[in-house]
Structure formats: C-alpha cells, structure tokens
Amino acid sequence: MAEVLARVREIKLFIDGHYRASSENKTFEVYNPATQELIANVHEATKEDVDRACQAARRAFEEGPWRTMTVKERCAKVRRMAEIIMERREELARLEALDVGKPFSVAYEFEIPRAAHNLSFFADFIEHHPSEMYPMEEEFLNYTRYEPVGVAALITPWNLPFMLTTWKLGPCLATGNTAVIKPAEPTPLTVSLLGEIAKEAGIPDGVVNVVQGFGPNSTGEFMTTHPEVDLISFTGETSTGKAIMKNGADTLKRVSFELGGKAANIVFEDADLDKAIPTSIRAAFLNSGQVCLAGSRILVQRSIFDEFVDRFAAAARQLKVGDPQDSNTNMGPLVSKEHYEKVTSYLQIAESEHSTLICGGKRPELTEYLKDGYYLEPTVFVQEDPHARICQEEIFGPIVTLIPFDTEEEALQIANSTQYGLNGVVWTDNLQRAHRVASKVRAGTIWVNCWFVRDLRVPFGGFKKSGIGREGGHHSLEFFTEAKTICLAL
Ligand code: NAD
C-alpha cells in the first residue's frame, strides 16, 4: 500500500470503456490536505470530452444490450461491482483518506463497505421489486412497467466521494440507465476507478463513464446543459443546486437534489447523557464536521446546560487529530485550502457575534510533516442567539455551537429557524415527547437517541432548501425510471 500513497498519479477520463486524456490536454492538480503535497494530475473534461461521454452513454442506452438484458443478468453485474470494491477495499480506503483527508479507519470500516452495499442493495432491491396490477372487473387489466429513463448525470461532492457516488450509481444501473459521473474536483481518486471496476464486472462499454473537472463553465456545467442527459442526480451545496436547476431547465431534465444541512441536535434534560454525549461528538466531528447530516447546532435544555458543556468539551478535547492514514486518528484536516479559509473565517464571525469559545479554535500542535495541513482543532462555541450566523449557516467543518433552551416549544422554534431541513436529532427518555418533537421538526430524517443509522429502503432527502426529491429504496427507483401504464382489454 505504500506505493499507492507515494506516487503522483495521473488521472484520466473513463469514456466508452477506455481511459482517455483530456482532448485539450488540460490538467489540474490535486493535493493531500494533510501535507499540501501534490498527489495527482487530473485530466479536465472539456466540452468535447463531455459530449463524447454523453454520446457514448446514449449509444450504450439505445443500442443495448444493457437496457434490454434481463434484470437478473444486469443486477448480477452490479453485484459483481460490489464484490470487486470489497476486493479492493484497502486500496480504495487509502485513496479516500489521501485526497479527502478523512481517517483511513473510517473509510475502511464504514464508507467502502457501505459503497459496496449501495450497489448490492439496489441490485437486490430492483431485482425483487414487484409491479402493480389492477384488474377492472372482467373487462380490462391495468399494469405498470418501470422502464429506465436514459442517460443520467451523477454529480457528487468531496466529503464522501465514493459512498455518495455509488449511492446514485446503484439504482441508476440496476434500473437500466447509463451514467456520466463527475466527482468533485478536490477528490477525484476513488471515483476515477469506477469505470474500470464496472468494466471488470462485465458491464458493457459506455454504460459507466467518469469525467473530471470543475463546476461552472467547466465539466459540471457541460454535463447539466448537454441535450443527451435526461436526468441529473446531484449532491452538494444548495447554491449549486440552484445553478444546476437553471442550467438543466432548457432541456427539461429531471432532477434529484441532496443539498446542505444545519441539523439541530436537541438534548432534553431527561436524556441519557452517557449516550447523547459520545454520539453528539461523532455527529459534530466525524469527517472533521464535513458531513451534510452533522449535528452542528446542539440545543441543550438549560437545566443540564452547564454539565453538558463541560462533558462535551472534555470529550472533544480527547479526539486525536492527526495523519489520516494513521489508524488511531479520529479527525483529519479539512479538505482544501479554500475550504479551510471558509471554515476558519467563522472563528472571526463567531467572535464578532459574541459567541463564547469553549475549546479549540486554533491549529492543533502536530508533528513536522503535518505542519502545512489544513487542520483545525475540534471547536466548541456557546451562543445564546439562535439567529447568529454560526447557528444559521452551514460551516461544514469541526465547529459546533451549543445553544441553551428552556421549553420544548422554544427548542422546536430554534430547530425550525434555518433555511435547511435535512435532518434532526432528539435525545429524551420520554416516549411521548420523542414522537411529538420528531413530528414537529421540519426535516427529512429525525433520529431519536441515535444518529447516522438508516435502512436503505427508507426515503432520504431534505425539506426546505435541503433538497428536492428522495433517495433510497423505491424512491430511487421512481427517480431513475419512467412508469408506464398498460391497459389491456380482456
Ligand atoms: P458543491 O456544490 O460545491 O459541489 C458538488 C459538485 O457539484 C462538485 O462535483 C462540483 O464540481 C459540482 N458543481 C459545482 N458547480 C456546478 C455547476 N454550476 N454545474 C454542475 N456541477 C457543479 O458541494 P461540495 O462543496 O463539494 O460539498 C459540500 C456540500 O454538499 C455541502 O453543502 C453539504 O451539505 C452537501 N452534501 C449534501 C449531502 C446530502 O445528502 N444532502 C451529502 C453530502 C454533502
């Protein structure tokens, strides 16, 4: 594995079953966020390259055999992709840690197996999915077929590149569509391998294409405006979702958006703090807080506020910040210079808003070779005003804000006061309150006395500005298929 990490790799585009250079030989550089060392030169897909990828995907869709083969055969190939991913688990986890900066152990234990599961789960789900049939007395019979839509653009963010891309690719492929994938520009490594993994699994050329590049006036925009793209599944920032929607409007593309979040993690005075604190620490600092579902606003009932602050800060100080490739590391750096600057700008914003710094707020002391990494200590603020910017805006870093509240009603008002509605968390031992609060928080997923657990059949997505549509189980199937009704006279 040392070899995987040591070399500066050249990352090409994967189009129509083959690696190809950028048509204009345009490349961009990717750096290790833990050290600022160069790790890859990446070929940027030009308009011509995107066109080639979309045309290849169109041909693979129209001419088959992908769309026309039996569901059983198609799903077996998707399942084979999952097996190959598990065979390459360590390499993929090393690479995910290398460009994202996340701990190798998290990628190895959780994200790469979950990526494999995304594919095998949807292969199983689609293969066993029933159809509807409605007989009308003795005279007519109605039934429904779910047919693939066509060419899908799958555009993903840098925080969980492999896991989120496979979450889209699984249902896209199992239902018979073809794909043009674009990972985020700072984190191309693992997703760049999906084309060759698909090919090795026996998936025909042109079905899975991977292009690399930026968003506006670059690869992403070329994809979302391309006439051969029928549907766009996008995960990323709310502002990017708006741009994509505008760009896709002229060609009337179907969109599914998973966007930003600013979850309220509400801790009532009857909560079991021995469980709430470690899980809230994970919810705040997993992946250096670069998780859309992060519990970045912790609302704590005033009667237990001081105790919670002390215990939470003590646990935050215990987190081991360091080299992502070291198995003992709990928290790595932020993903890039640009993102580091954005996240650390909130330290000044917090100060100007009279937030109280409880712990963190500076670079941790690390060994020499990590001195240039984009590191920030786990940082905890207390803020009384829930409308302060650090309580409203998605910081997407290891900065969490603790906000006191007195009553359930007040907690709900604060929880629902942002533009986001992706998820929420409730800690209480009172069953009635758990259901009551869960029903009143306006968000797509509410965890009660837990976080980040989900059966893949349930709907996943956001209220308000956190998204459009739902992914998971039959919700993904509906997005990636056209439902056709056939009515037959008997
Ligand atoms: P981003 O929106 O900047 O970029 C996401 C992807 O979109 C990248 O591949 C980027 O190159 C591309 N892109 C940017 N502009 C584009 C354009 N005009 N046209 C087409 N493509 C374009 O997001 P990010 O910074 O990579 O990721 C962080 C964001 O993602 C956060 O807001 C986070 O909450 C969100 N996120 C949401 C979920 C979810 O499930 N709701 C999951 C993970 C991350």
From TrEMBL:
<dbReference type="InterPro" id="IPR016163">
    <property type="entry name" value="Ald_DH_C"/>
</dbReference>
<dbReference type="GO" id="GO:0016620">
    <property type="term" value="F:oxidoreductase activity, acting on the aldehyde or oxo group of donors, NAD or NADP as acceptor"/>
</dbReference>
<dbReference type="InterPro" id="IPR029510">
    <property type="entry name" value="Ald_DH_CS_GLU"/>
</dbReference>
<keyword id="KW-0560">Oxidoreductase</keyword>
<dbReference type="InterPro" id="IPR016161">
    <property type="entry name" value="Ald_DH/histidinol_DH"/>
</dbReference>
<dbReference type="InterPro" id="IPR016162">
    <property type="entry name" value="Ald_DH_N"/>
</dbReference>
<dbReference type="Pfam" id="PF00171">
    <property type="entry name" value="Aldedh"/>
</dbReference>
<feature type="active site">
    <location>
        <position position="258"/>
    </location>
</feature>
<keyword id="KW-0520">NAD</keyword>
<feature type="domain" description="Aldehyde dehydrogenase">
    <location>
        <begin position="22"/>
        <end position="486"/>
    </location>
</feature>
<dbReference type="InterPro" id="IPR016160">
    <property type="entry name" value="Ald_DH_CS_CYS"/>
</dbReference>
<comment type="similarity">
    <text>Belongs to the aldehyde dehydrogenase family.</text>
</comment>
<protein>
    <submittedName>
        <fullName>Aminomuconate-semialdehyde/2-hydroxymuconate-6-semialdehyde dehydrogenase</fullName>
    </submittedName>
</protein>
<dbReference type="InterPro" id="IPR015590">
    <property type="entry name" value="Aldehyde_DH_dom"/>
</dbReference>
